[in-house]
Design a protein that fits this description.
The protein has about 300 residues and is of the alpha/beta class. It has 2 domains: about 160 residues, Rossmann fold, CATH 3.40.50; about 120 residues, Orthogonal Bundle (N-(1-d-carboxylethyl)-l-norvaline Dehydrogenase, domain 2), CATH 1.10.1040. It contains 15 helices and 9 strands. A 6-stranded parallel β-sheet has the order 3-2-1-4-5-6, sandwiched between helices. A 3-stranded mixed β-sheet has the order 7-8-9. Helix 1 packs parallel to helix 7, helix 9 crosses helix 15 and helix 13 runs antiparallel to helix 14. The longest helix has 29 residues. It is globular, with a radius of gyration of 20 Å. The structure holds NADP nicotinamide-adenine-dinucleotide phosphate (NAP). The site of NADP nicotinamide-adenine-dinucleotide phosphate has 27 residues, from helix 4, strand 7 and helix 7. Belongs to the HIBADH-related family.
């Protein structure tokens, strides 16, 4: 019999990921902080509704969480009415959110005390990858738990890699987020410089894409850069959270991350300017802002 799946957190990522599991034939029990969203999901897909993470855990063999940040996962898993209160012996918790590797390891040891196990399985590939079921999934935890979860991962993603023990998935995700943030920042500088120099942004992207400078950010964020419409996507405030995780890991492991620290500050300034809810490609606006907004020269 296929395992019963619980899914908590039906946001930009969680909703389409959960939908892909339903489409793959799994029975789902869902929960979301804003209950009406979970109700809409249940009406659309036939999933069962639960009123708390505890209730989800009571009726599931595998519980998946897709939540914004470490405190959210801590409260959903270990808080009052949380997953730990309802989790069955032998069950598996898979946290697919991007959170701190330290918090991950703490939660994994709490889960173990209940006779269950936990994987950290953060993803990359964005909302498009979530909808299309083509996410990259980087997984930390025990090999046998990874094999148990593999069919679920295959319903949601394409590149599925067991990268090491508990917390290792989150370490790889932090590395991923450094490269993405710094790439967006570099492309933004190139675009603002080019535009001020009188070259159309689409020409800059076309030319740079063909050489060593070419990267996926130019491809995936192209329309957002050109239209300057920054609907998320991936919210800048979440990327700020991720660079915080990377910097904390760098401190813990004694690794210097100087440019990550700089871009972290730019993302913070986006939040302060009220742009935190925009797509992370709106970093372009920070460079424009620092350069006088194009109107002051
Ligand atoms: N968006 C991307 O492109 C992307 C890509 C890769 C990884 N990620 C990571 O994936 C995670 C989720 O991102 P997202 O973009 O899907 O965020 P999101 O749109 O903000 O979704 C988060 C969902 O979690 C729910 N939630 C929050 N706290 C909860 C709680 N205590 N109990 C139950 N549900 C709760 C929210 O409910 P409400 O309806 O009440 O807000 C919301 O539906 C983050 O860690 C992010 O860094 C995102």
């Amino acid at each position: 019999m296929p395992e019963r799946i619980g899914f908590i957190g039906l946001g930009i990522m969680g909703w389409p990921m959960a939908e892909n599991l339903v489409q793959a034939g799994y029975d789902l029990t869902v929960h979301n902080r804003t209950h009406s969203k979970a109700q809409r999901f249940a009406e659309k897909t036939g999933a069962q509704l639960a009123h708390s993470p505890k209730e989800v855990a009571e009726s599931s063999d595998v519980v998946i969480t897709m939540l914004p940040d470490s405190p959210d996962v801590q409260s959903v898993v270990a808080g009052e009415g949380g997953v730990l209160e309802g989790i069955r012996e032998g069950a598996l918790l898979i946290d697919m959110s991007t959170i701190s590797p330290v918090v991950t390891r703490e939660l994994a040891s709490e889960v173990k005390k209940k006779g269950a196990s936990m994987l950290d399985a953060p993803v990359s590939g964005g909302d498009v990858g979530a909808r299309e079921g083509t996410l990259s999934i980087m997984v930390g935890g025990e090999e046998e738990d990874f094999e148990r979860a593999r069919p679920l991962f295959e319903a949601m993603g394409k590149t599925i890699t067991h990268v090491g023990p508990s917390g290792a998935g989150q370490v790889v995700k932090a590395a991923n987020q450094i490269v993405v943030a710094l790439s967006i920042e570099a492309v933004s500088e190139a675009l603002v410089l080019g535009s001020r120099g009188g070259v159309a942004p689409e020409k800059i992207l076309d030319v740079l894409s063909g050489g060593l400078a070419g990267n996926r950010v130019m491809e995936v964020k192209r329309e957002k850069f050109l239209s300057r419409s920054f609907e998320p996507g991936f919210r800048a405030e979440l990327h700020h959270k991720d660079l915080g995780i990377a910097l904390a890991a760098g401190r813990e492991y004694g690794v210097a991350l100087p440019v990550t620290a700089l871009v972290d500050q730019m993302l913070l300034s986006m939040k302060k300017k009220g742009w935190g809810g925009e797509d992370h490609s709106a970093l372009l606006r920070v460079i424009e802002d620092l350069s006088g907004d194009g109107t002051t020269e």
